[in-house]
């Protein structure tokens, strides 16, 4: 690996007159690219690749002197400013790869590149309309403009002149308006990605003209109307993503003619009607398309393609983060990944059960959160590659067809429908099944003992199916499932010795020598429940709730009122006829529910679930009536409770109380923060308020806060995790400052270890985004002494927080991660000491004076990376706010450090002299 800067006085043509290609990618080169380097270029130089380094500054215009270049790549650096017009004089250029920089403008002269076939401008900061010069690139086949801030409508000329275009990615911009009519004439188009814009209008019938299309992603827009029947003409379509729009009507029957279609995601729309009878016919002809692709692979540059592309389809629904592992997800293999994807070699990791089935490519059908009716078509049995079937939150009826037991399923989610009948024992044949969710239906009968054969099953949920009865299997994976898997199933029994004490009183033994859920009369515990329900919303409980609790003769387990409230909330789509007739127990519980969780007790959800999916009664039960034993943490004006809702759903419920201020303003702020989406931002997925109390819902983070880990278990955060945590938080802040929409800049205002939460895999999530400024209390948290440690020196209580303040606070977090010195030193002392160590008073090969934590020292790969990490923290904590880097620059630099980390080498510290 090369380190340092490029020589400023060397010209390529003079130093290497016969040079044909120069590849300096993936080194530790930094500084500005010297303009003199290109003053003289070898006439034979055809490839120049400086990607994956740390160059900053502008692209030198002298690169236009290298007139024989065919490939020019400056991607994955920190280059900024203007793409010079002199590049337009490189008339032999075929590939121009400038993605992942900070470039903001581009010269129109690039329209002279008539041989250009590949243009990559993704993940920069270009804005305004799509540049006109692109219309002149008539040989262009691959166009990557994604993840910028292009706005306005998509110009019709873009597709009118680019008649040979094959791949177009315009996703993650701010484009508006309808899809242009000229788009539907591009018969050579194979991949069209326009996700995450603000596109409107409908998908026209003319889409059927694109018969060679293989990838279509229009998700996360505002498209309306129905999916046209002409979609059935796309017989080579492999991947169709139309989720999170406003599409209506049924899936057209002609979609069954999409004989190559393996990945279909139409979740979170308003689709209605039944599933097509022949839906199982999709995907059966995929091998033909794969064979054609394998025989006609188009040449791509070695570093072409977007390596994040393939991850977009991965199902992360139902809390199941099913990560497909690729051996080629690294630099230099993006083109290979494209070819593997289009050639059907979408290989799962070695631990995947699918490898036992000799599958190279599996199928994914995601239609959750729609209004689909009817039964599950038996034709699904012919969809022999189907591994992910997600049909939850619809209005499906009928039996769970036995034919599902013949599919190679990994995930099966049929929850929140109106399915009835019994569970087919044939589901026990799904030996690869990992997730099985049939909760909130009308299923009856027993849980088949054949399900004990599901050796890969890690999540099982049949809760809120009150007609399920008999013993629960006690073999296989069943002893490990939580009681929440069976909530609301009052007829189910547990075998002796299997149930774990997860409720306040153990159920008694059933007559058949098993343990049953409904054992203890309500009146024996009425006072206990009523005492608990007073916290925190007792003043707002209606008289009808208390009346419902007072009905005598109910026979339920401790907490069953909460369970049945839960059941009825989840089961809103069921009518009384679907429940057991003549049951005074059920009628009384329904009377309670009618009062307790009427509309005003519903939680407002922001994660796509309908209002009414969750109620306050659910949260009250799941937190043991907000009991201290469920308390997960406390802040300056909030308490956080752990709420296990069943089915693997565990939430953090933040309880905030304020008596003054505008509740509507606070709700508006909550909704705005809930609209933000970034992999390292803790999402706000729900909100409920009554009077002065406000509940904010987020996923529960298993490992708590970074502050707690640094204090209580610092040894679990080694160098690799330190770097990963830092990069994740930096990425989240960069998103808030530069990328989130519709507001261009959001200041977090409270960056500190206690607001950095970690999941079970140590993935970091930045919490409480701008929350301090939204809570109308007398003393804001940033004025409190605990926050002053992390506040920038220029900050004053009367000033609104600025992005530079977030940068400063983040810099202190970096220094704490590296040193683990939190309470021993003041912020200024830590910064001063780190500056002395990292900026020259101690060199790389000398002792650091005990500043860097021993775990970090011992587990890092290269001591130089540690010092570079420290220097990032010092740059962020510069006394002059104008001298601090942007969070986008910081995130990119930390990404480079992650790339360079080599875990095979220990850090070596020489003893100080």
From TrEMBL:
Primary subcellular site in the record, as a coarse category: membrane
Keywords per UniProt: Glycoprotein, Leucine-rich repeat, Membrane, Repeat, Transmembrane, Transmembrane helix
A Pfam family assignment: LRR_1
PROSITE patterns linked: PROTEIN_KINASE_DOM
Membrane topology type: Single-pass membrane protein
Keyword Glycoprotein: yes
Entry's transmembrane regions: 540-565
Record localization: Membrane
Annotated ranges, domain Protein kinase: 626-897
Alphabetized GO MF terms: ATP binding; protein serine/threonine kinase activity; receptor serine/threonine kinase binding
GO cellular component, one term: membrane
Name assigned to this protein: Protein kinase domain-containing protein
Native source species: Ceratopteris richardii (Triangle waterfern)
Upper lineage: Eukaryota, Viridiplantae, Streptophyta, Embryophyta, Tracheophyta
